[in-house]
Amino acid sequence: MAATARENDVITDDDIEPLADETARQAQRVVAAYAQDADECRMFLSMLGIGPGTAGPAKAE
């Protein structure tokens, strides 16, 4: 029997908290360690939203 989504199971943008910089860096390292090559690594990081330049606030110049 297929499960049906209930209203309480829906995740909205307001429910998502920003990812801490250190957590994003750790996730990037894990993805890089298990990726077959650089293209796969970039693809996974992009899918997770933690690719280069996407994690953390912009650096001050």
TrEMBL record:
Name under which the protein is recorded: Uncharacterized protein
Organism (species): Hoyosella altamirensis
